Amino acid sequence: MLLSSADSKREGFSSGLAVFFATLGSAVGLGNIWKFPYLTGANGGGAFLVIYFICIALVGIPVMTGEFIIGRRGRSNAVGSFRNVTGNPNTPWRFVGIMGVLSAYLIMFFYTDVAGWVYFYFFKAATGQLAGITKDQVEPLFRSVVGAGAKDLKGAMSPLLWQWIVLGLVGTAISMGVRSGIERITKTLMPLLFVLIIMCDVRALTLPGAKEGVAFLFKVDFSKVTASVILSALGLAFFKLSLGMSTMITYGSYFTQDNRMLNTAVRVAASDTLVSMLAGLAIFPTVFSFHMEPSAGPGLLFMTIPLVFSQIPMGSVLLACFFLLTCFAATTAMLSIIEVPIAFMVEELGIKRPKAALVNCLIIALVGATATLSADSTGYLGHVKVLGKSFFDLYDHLSSNILMPIGGLLTALFVGYFIKPATVEEELSNNGTLNNQGLIRCYIFIVRYITPALLLLVFLNTTGIIKI
Ligand code: PHE
Question: What GO molecular-function term can you cite, just one (predicted)?
Answer without folding.
Answer: symporter activity
